[in-house]
Amino acid sequence: SRIMLYKPKMFMSEFSQLAGLMLDSAKFIESGIKEIKKLDSNPKLTEICIHISRTENMADEIYHQAISRLFEEETDPIELIKWKEIYQFAETVLDICEDVAHIVESIIVKQA
After folding, report:
1. pLDDT tens, position by position, 63-89
2. I want to staple 56 with a disulfide (CB 3.0 to 4.6 A). Which of 17, 91, 92, 98 is the partner?
């Protein structure tokens, strides 16, 4: 939605990586929601939470690289602002996915 809203002139390669991680996390959250019904001793649910946390950690690295490259290479201040906002939104989405994983983990602990 941010890409369509801001209409950046160029496409930054790091964004496709972040978009892939957002999609991956969303799919794992969907799987986790299906697995939460089988909460009693469900190792798959724990694996899903771990995967989402690892995905967010990878996203942090990509985000930092992208922001660094953006400030080094982008000369148009408007484009810089657009991409900074797009990257920050993607990072927020992935942080929220990790928050969901932490909530699921806390449910697992409380049920144990």
Report:
1. 999 999 999 999 999 999 999 999 999
2. 98
Burial class (CB in 10 A: 0-12, 13-18, 19+), 97: buried
Distance CA 104, CA 36 (A): 8
Q: What's the whole-model pTM score?
A: 0.87
CA 93, 22, 4, 12 torsion-angle sign: positive
- Rg (C-alpha) for the chain, rounded Å, is 17
| Residue 31 Cα to chain centre, angstroms | 16
SS3 43: helix
